Structures are given as structure tokens and as C-alpha cells.
Amino acid sequence: MTTELSLRESEEIQGDILAGFKKDNVSVLFLKFEDASRARDWLRRLTPQIATTRQVAAFNEAFSEARHASGGDDPKSLTATWLGVSFTYEGLRMLAGADPFPTPPPVGGGLEAFKEGSAQRAGALGDTGDNSPENWLFGNGKNQPVHALLKISADTERDLQAAVEAQRIAAAECRVLIVYQQNAQTLLGSRRGKEHFGFKDGISEPGVRGFDRPNPAKPEEEDGHPGTRLVPAGEFVCGLENDRFSGPPSQYPEWARNGSFQVVRRLAQDVPGWWSQVSVKLRELKQAKAVPESATAEWLAARMVGRWRSGAPVCKHQDRDVPNSPSAANDNDFDFRDDLEGLVTPLWSHLRKTSPRAGLQESPDKPPFDAGILDGRRIIRRGTPYGAPFDPASEGPGGPDDPRGLLFICYQADIQRQFEFIQADWMDQPNFPPNRDSGGAVPPGHAGPRPVPGKDPVTQEAPDVDFESRGPDGLINHTPVSFQQFVQTTGSVYAFMPSLSILRGLCEGRLTPVGQNGQTGTQTGQTGQTGQTGQTGTQTGTQTGGQPKPQPVKAYPCDEFVGVPDQYRKGGQSRYWAFHGDRCRVISIADGSAHTDRKVEDDTWLTSWTCLQGVGRVDCVLPVPDQQDPGGKSWYWVFHSTGGRQQYRLVSITCAGGRYTTALERSDRDLTYWGSLSGVGQVDCWLPVPDQQRVGGKSWYWCFHTTSGRQQYRLISIADGSSHTDVRERTDRELSQWSSLNGLSRVDCFLPVPDRQRVSGSSEFWVFCGQSYRRISIADGSGHPDRLVDGDRTCDNWASLG
């Protein structure tokens, strides 16, 4: 059923666009693809972890309700980590294997801006001199190219670090390079919600029609936020209903539907320099009798911004800030119709330059435009400060020369019509509002020719700002003021954040929609799952109900192999489920010297397994030692990552009459429930100690894990019985302790050679790492000596994995 707020239920639109991640800790990884095929492998693993609008909107609402119930305190127990991914034009081209624009995009439009990129368009945006691309840290086209951006947002620093570490490992496995990493964090204490100059940020964000609740009394405004207009969703999400002046939704290519164009800029702020400048200019204005003698630096700074530090608008609180008024701090219910000359809130203030509201005139003798006319220029901002705040009394972090600024991120349907227009035609334009220079009309009350209003002094160098004030004679006086620039562009990228169905299409190398279960076309809704993970015989893992299967891909890098419970060395064949990314297939391996392998079943989505609902990728699986096939039912611990944080669940697989069914026996838990895993960031794989399985009621394992970006291993034991008590038997050691693993920095998974287990006192295993594998042996007895049997070979040698 279509509802008034149907966009809140979207599982197609990525979560940061409309709902907003709204986390205190943020990191953006700027990525370069070395190989298109490996990049698609990386994306295939990543896509199930990408947050949707539905997930983020539901969490944000629950968080808001919990905070309200607690009297305004953030609920500590309610946390989440969100991931969002976007691509530059070159990144889309590599993944799709074709130009996203078979014919050139229209000249002068947003699609052309996206294709050209921010570096090529820097001059028109004022990114010259110190701001020019040659000085950028990323996105300048001269250093490493940027193909993708991965935004990671978390409630806690710990969760962010864990998620970043997991994504760095995932990228390295697929030869995706991190060319730059920008961390950002909400400022703490009294600075919370403010940017580094000290002013509250994000108050003037637009509401979105179909996502935010309308005010019953004023349907054009967001409920609970007086003055916040509800803008058509198509101004931010391509292909949806948009403003009547913005062009039809059909102007976008099909791959853009339910996606949004993203601008990311690193804006460095010289905080002590800016405040010093404010003090100097205040003295000049007092000497010119342009401001009251009682005016302070805070007074002038508030007029430069348009709001006081608390967020209270200058137009409603002209004399002083009201820091203890929550309603004033979030006040958006005003326009500038009664201040068209900028006597209260200057025309060149940041607030009026970026969002003129109903105070914009075509010329001074024309009535102002209605605020709704400007809906097509709005953007959704998701910026976060980076760096330590400036504290003059601090001798440590927070000094005057420390790097600090704003990680600026915005979303829009048309980069040129929205972001670039605001930047070039409003903020960076001296003659704004238009037709007010000396050649324009002179409005009533002016004593003579009108000076140029000037650029935005907060972000742009503004040498000719006109500070207007009314003199004793009632006439408007004009005092020129020159501001230097104290915000510098140090990096910029234009990207596109696709829908979830397009992400799945890109995993297969095409820019066409692919649904949750693999179907192509424009219908991308989820279909129901049965409780059965298989058809008949060993058909476990295939899609049921006639649902289409995933497109064929290679099954490596491999994540895990799990033996089919009743198909081990049966008729000289052993069958395994081979997990890779968000899918799984069934393979068989024959006994004998050749160990011939073949693919028994094609790939199926993990979502076809009842026990794996909500799992985007299986990291590793550990069979419960004393619960393997008693009465046809086997139990397993499944380790998987969600939002960059690893958890585990308990599942079962039952074989009855040649059919397999799965069940979730216990929902996800944190690794802290395992005493033997204390200090482990992520478990990568398990290797059973061959001669120590269920000996004296205990089974021993080598646990390979990644912590602080480095894979190590430890020895643990698990006892039989209902509690399955686990103990760390030996502390962490380096992989170099294994002679058979020489040259490897990590192991993805182990696969036992079926007919070479406990033969003549040794056991053999295939060791998989990325695109290659090797074969090793481990001897029984004290020390368990290991040796390399066969050196590295390409996984292409496995017919079952191709």
C-alpha cells in the first residue's frame, strides 16, 4: 500500500541521502580500482552491508524516541554502524565495462558536470590560487584517481575503527587501493552540533516530501519544524517527482533512478585567523560609525553568518544571542521579506548567500521571489567537522596550526543546477543579489550609486563587501569592508550514489537494475522466502519458488567451505557448500590423487537460507564439535559482519529424506561471549587440530583472526556439553611460525583434503588466499609440524570455482 511517507520504507535508496546517517564518528575512504573484475568482487561483498533508507529511518526514529524518553540524553545501548558507497564517472565506467553515457550528456547540465568531475570545473567555482586542484589532497586528477567513495558512520569511535579496519582488509583482498582517508567527528561538549568557527550547523536543511511528515495546518512545511519547507523528493533522488522548474524525471538515464549525485569537499578552516579578522573589521566599522559602539566581535560574526553561535537567527534576535533557548537555536521560521536591503541580516551573509528564502529579488525594484521558486536549488547537506577544535589555552591537540575544517557532503539530483549554482552564482558572485551594482536601479532611501554587495565572507575572499547601515538622517550608508579568505578547498570529488538494485547490477558488470534475488528489470522488491533452503537430494542452497538465480561469477576469493553433513566421502565423493560474497554454491571433490572437482549447483543468494537472513557475507563457520549429525541434525556457529562489526549466530542444518532445511537456533551475539576470543577484532577462519578433536571431551582449534590490521592466530579449545566452554590455550602468534604459510600475510579459509585426513600420522589441507591456493600438511603429535606440499597456484585450476 502506498502511504504518505512511502519513501521511509525504501530499500532501494541508500540510507544517507534522505534519512541521514546522523552519527558522531565518520570516515570516508577514497578508493582506486586496480582491476575491474576484482573491484566487482569487492562490491559483491560490500553491497549486502550497504544501509538502506528503511533501515536508517527506522533506527533514527527509535533513537529519537529513546532520547526523548530519557530527557534528552543519547541512548547508549542503541547504536549502529552505517555504510554508503558512491562512484565517480570513471569508477562507474570500470565496473560496468562500458561508458555510462553512450551518447554525450547534455551540455551545461548536471550529467555533464558529473562526467567532467570537480577538478575540471574548479575554475568556475572559485577553486583557484591556494584552492586550485593542484593543491588538493584528493580528486585533482594528478595524484591517484578516485573511483569510489565509501562512507562509514558509527555512534562510537570503537565501532568506527572496527568497521574501517574491516573495510580496509576487504579492499586489500580485492586490490582496491585506499588513496586517501578522511576522518571526521562531531565536536564535543558545548561545541556539539557546531562547526569549527563555533556556529551551530545544519539547521536550515530542507524537508523532503514523501519522507518527512507534513504539518497538518501547513502541508507545505515539515511537521514540528516551522518554516522548513517540504521540497519534492526528485530534487535529491533522481527519477522521482521534482519541482516544476527542474525538468522531467525522465531526463536521467535509467541507472540514475533512485540514486543521487554526491559532492564531497574537504574545506580547511583557519579558525584563529578568521576570528582575528572579525575583531579587526569590527574596529574599522566602529571608526566609520557603521555599527553601534556596543557591538562586539560576536555581534559582527553573527551578521557574517546570519545566525548567532547558538543557531538563533539574527533577524529575530538582533542585539544578542539566546544560548539557553532550544526553540531559538532550531528556529527556521523566518524569511527576509522585511529586510530586503540587508540592514539586519546582510545580503552577503552566509545564510542569505546559500539560501535566500523569500528575500531574493530579480532587481531592487521587483518584488521578492516566493521561497518555493527556489526549491529546485536546494541541496541536502551531511557535513561533519574534522580535526581538533581550536582552544587558545591548549598546549596539545587543538593548537592554532592543527588541521581542522569541514568534511562537506551534499546530495542533489543535478550537480550543476544545485550545488554549482549555489557556489558560483550565489556564494561566489559579487553581484548577488543581481542588478544591485552601480549600473542598477537605486532603491528608495539610497543616497547614491549602490556598491557591489560582495562574496560570502565566511567561505570566499570578499574584498568589496558593502556593510549597510541606516544613518541619523534615515538614509542608508554604505561602508566597504574587505575580508580575506579563511576557508580553503583542499579536496573535491563528484560522485554518484546508486540504488541498491543498480549496485547489484554493477556486481555483475552492468548498469542495469538487479533485484534482491537476482532478477533484472525495474521491479526490485523482495520476494518471500520459504523455510526450505533446498529442493531435493543435495540441492541445498538453491533459490526456491522459481526465483531467478544470480548471474554466474567466479567463486573466489573464497570465504568458507562447509561440508554437506551426509555427503562426506560418499561413493568416493565429498560435497561442500562454497561461500563467497553474498552467495553460495555446492561443489564436489573426488578421492584419489587428482582430487577432481566439479560444480554441483550454481550460485544462490545467501538469503535463500532461512538461517542466514540478514547476513550479507559469511566470514567463517565453525561446526559445533559434539553436534554433528546426531539424528540427522548438525549445528554450526556462523561468524559474519554487519556494518563492519563481526557477530556470530547459532544455526542448524537438518537432513531428512534427502532434503535439507536450516534454522536459526540463536540470534546474533557479540564476540565478547567467547572468552577465548578476548581482544579479537574479526575471526577469519578456523583450522581444527587434526588429532585433538573430541579427545577427553574437548576439541582444539587454531583460530586465525585479524586485529589492528594484522592477521595472527591463537590456540583455543571447546568442551563438549551444553555450555561448550571455550578456553584460550595459547596466546597470539604470527603467521611466520608456520613454515607452510611462508609468504602469506593472511589466510582466507582452509579446506581439508577429504581422503588425506589422519593418514600415516598427518593431515592435508588446501589453503586459500585471494586468487591463489596452496596445499599443506600437518603432522599429529607434539608441536604439530607443518610443511608445504604444493606451492601457490591460481584458483582458476578449480573447475568448481569458475
What do you see in this structure?
Helix 2 packs across helix 12 (500-507). Mean pLDDT is 89; it is low at 438-452 and 521-547. The protein has 802 residues and is of the alpha+beta class. The two termini are 43 Å apart. Among the domains are: 6-268 and 491-501, no CATH class; 529-801, Tachylectin-2, Chain A, CATH 2.115.10. It contains twelve helices and 29 strands. A hairpin with a 2-residue loop joins strand 27 (762-769) and strand 28 (772-779). The strands form eight sheets. Strands 7, 8, 9, 10 and 13 form a five-stranded antiparallel β-sheet that branches. Strands 2-3-1-4 form a four-stranded antiparallel β-sheet. The longest helix is centred in the N-terminal third of the chain and has 17 residues, at 53-69.
The overall strand count is: 29
Largest sheet: 5 strands, antiparallel
What fraction of residues sit in β-strands?
Answer: 25-35%
Average pLDDT, to the nearest integer?
89
Q: Could you estimate the helical fraction of the residues in percent?
A: 10-25%
* End-to-end gap: 43 Å
- Residue stretches low in confidence (pLDDT < 50, at least 5 long) are 438-452, 521-547
Look at the helices and sheets and give the structural class. Answer: alpha+beta
Anisotropy-based shape: elongated
Task: Please work out how many helical segments DSSP would assign.
Answer: 12
Our Rg estimate from Cα atoms comes to 30 Å
Topology:
Elements: H1 15-18, E1 25-33, H2 36-46, H3 53-69, E2 81-87, H4 89-96, H5 110-116, E3 148-154, H6 157-173, E4 176-185, E5 207-208, E6 230-231, E7 260-269, H7 271-287, H8 297-305, H9 326-329, H10 350-354, E8 380-381, E9 384-386, E10 405-412, H11 416-427, E11 462-470, E12 476-483, E13 487-497, H12 500-507, E14 560-563, E15 573-580, E16 583-590, E17 597-605, E18 618-623, E19 633-642, E20 645-656, E21 659-670, E22 682-688, E23 698-707, E24 710-719, E25 726-734, E26 749-752, E27 762-769, E28 772-779, E29 786-794
Parallel strand pairs: 5-6
Antiparallel strand pairs: 1-3, 1-4, 2-3, 7-10, 7-13, 8-10, 9-10, 11-12, 14-15, 15-16, 16-17, 18-19, 19-20, 20-21, 22-23, 23-24, 24-25, 26-27, 27-28, 28-29
